[in-house]
Write a structure and sequence with these properties.
Order of helices and strands: HEHEHEHHEEEHEEHEHEHEHEHEH
Number of helices: 12
CATH architecture of the largest domain: 3-Layer(aba) Sandwich
Strand order of the largest sheet: 1-13-12-11-2-9-10
Family: Belongs to the cation transport ATPase (P-type) (TC 3.A.3) family. Type IB subfamily.
Organism: Chitinophaga silvatica
CATH topology of the largest domain: Rossmann fold
Mean pLDDT: 92
Largest sheet: 7 strands, mixed
Bound molecules: adenosine-5'-diphosphate, magnesium ion
Helix content: 40-55%
CATH class of the largest domain: Alpha Beta
Subcellular location: Cell membrane; Endomembrane system
Radius of gyration: 20 Å
Distance between the termini: 17 Å
Protein name: Copper-translocating P-type ATPase
């Protein structure tokens, strides 16, 4: 039988947007010393809108950049893909189908469009492949930037903006008051990671991390004696969510993340992480 305090707490949790799938994760929530946040969709709204477009080669107009980028993003569920598809729609660009589309893990996506290889990739990937191009000059504070590569040419870039969720500042401040360290972990660029981390007063950020590095980071924190919770939304967050002492998935995220995590934030609200820890403490204090 489920002890009454837990049954009560579970019902209360549901009211506060928490789905407790694994009781051990719930029990462990009161011991958290470090909370690692994935950026997109938890601390930010998770809706990317194209804010700027730039052609770097005269044969590619801005519409052509959107058309080719949208062709490869058509089958992706990444929030960046959604933002680019919306831009194509608003420009009324007719988007061709791409063939052999595949992810470049943690760095972008590629496919064949009208006989040419087209990819939409991170600044970090461009730095590796085109070391002479100046990338950082093209990124403004708070922007996520992706480059369009057509054949061997860097055709241009698309800047997208997401918004910090209105609930995030209070959530981070509450965690700080509880003595919990907060760290931002993201595959996105350093400039946007730093601006989110600084504006929320977090203890630090780790940017441009590849999916397998997310897992390594959790292990590293644990080996330093931290009791780690992680929030995440993507398929690529699943290994890190499984490794964390408390795995927290975002309701608006992928099913894989939700299946791996012990707790789901139904409303994707970071304030509900604070409720989780408070409920965990209240519940297990009563039992002892
Ligand atoms: P996170 O979930 O932390 O944002 P991801 O691994 O999903 O990290 O993405 C890391 C980076 O890889 C993105 O910021 C972007 O530059 C690039 N990327 C990933 N998927 C796509 C995509 N579908 N289209 C364009 N760029 C992508
Ligand atoms: Mg993600």
């Amino acid at each position: 039988a489920i002890p009454l305090v837990i049954a009560k707490s579970t019902a209360l949790s549901a009211k506060h947007g928490l789905l407790i799938k694994n009781r051990t994760d719930f029990e462990n929530s009161r011991k958290i010393t470090t909370l690692v946040f994935d950026k997109t969709g938890t601390l930010t709204v998770g809706r990317f809108e194209v804010s700027r477009l730039k052609s770097l080669e005269s044969e590619f107009s801005e519409n052509e950049i959107v058309r080719l980028a949208a062709a490869v993003e058509g089958s992706s569920e990444h929030p960046i893909a959604t933002g680019i598809m919306e831009k194509a729609k608003s420009l009324k660009v007719s988007v061709p189908a791409a063939q052999n589309v595949s992810a470049i893990t943690g760095k972008g996506i590629k496919g064949n469009v009208e006989g040419t290889e087209v990819s939409v990739v991170s600044p970090a990937f461009i730095k590796e492949q085109f070391p002479s191009l100046h990338i950082d000059d093209n990124i403004q504070t708070g922007e996520t930037v992706v480059y369009l590569v057509v054949g061997k040419t860097v055709a241009g870039y698309i800047a997208l903006a997401d918004q910090i969720r209105p609930e995030s500042p209070a959530a981070i401040a509450s965690l700080k008051k509880m003595g919990i360290k907060t760290i931002l972990l993201t595959g996105d660029n350093k400039i946007v990671a730093e601006s989110v981390s600084d504006s929320l007063g977090m203890d630090g950020f780790i940017a441009e991390v590849l999916p397998h590095q997310k897992l390594e980071k959790i292990k590293e924190l644990q080996s330093r004696g931290e009791f780690v919770a992680m929030t995440g939304d993507g398929i690529n967050d699943a290994p890190a969510l499984a490794q964390a002492n408390v795995g927290i998935a975002i309701g608006s995220g992928s099913d894989v993340a939700a299946a791996t995590a012990g707790i789901v934030l139904v409303n994707s609200n970071p304030q509900d992480v604070v409720s989780l820890i408070q409920f965990g403490k209240a519940t297990y204090r009563k039992m002892i």
